[in-house]
Amino acid sequence: MKTYRVTLTGVSEMFFGRPVLEPKLKNETHEQHDARTAPQKVYVEQIGERKGTVYIQPFALKNGLESAAKRIQRPIPGQGKSTYSKLFRQGVMCVEKIYLTDHSGKPLTLDDVKMLRIFVPSDGKRGSGKRVWRTFPQVTEWAAVGVIHIVDPKIDEEILTEHLVEFGQYIGMGSMRVENGGIAGRFAVESVDLV
Questions:
Q1: 2-194 classified as CATH 3.30.70
Q2: Domain spans of the chain, in order of start
Q3: Pairing with 86, which of 75, 111, 155, 186 sits 20 to 30 Å away (CA)?
């Protein structure tokens, strides 16, 4: 198994959409509840030396790589029409939280996250009927360092980098990301380093 540390720099804003389980207060409208609980849509470290730092779940990195592999459909040399999609699904692990910083390296906290009110489809599907106001947490400047464990030896550094670049350009991270028809979550790959 090989482990890579990847450094990513956001080139578009990122929106957060962690599910909120807190119930509405008595006489609270959906819009009021959404605005009040919007900060809960952001993952924030609760313990240790990084307490208070905003982070992304590690599966966002793994899922993005899988989506990139499906998009690229690069064949595995010597294996006919088989592509890397299955290898990225089964042969990659991402288990460490991905902590966010600004471009200078300062850890992002909830104080750095802006709340943006947007008029969106009530069911989250483009083109559907009813629209409602929703509040989305947003950062406009972000960077991250993620750790990727490669179990399958057929995924080398060149293949990993190619898929990360595709992920950053055409998939993105967070809510309203490029993959889902949005404009957010794009990033550039600054480095891919073997640990």
A1: yes
A2: 2-194
A3: 186
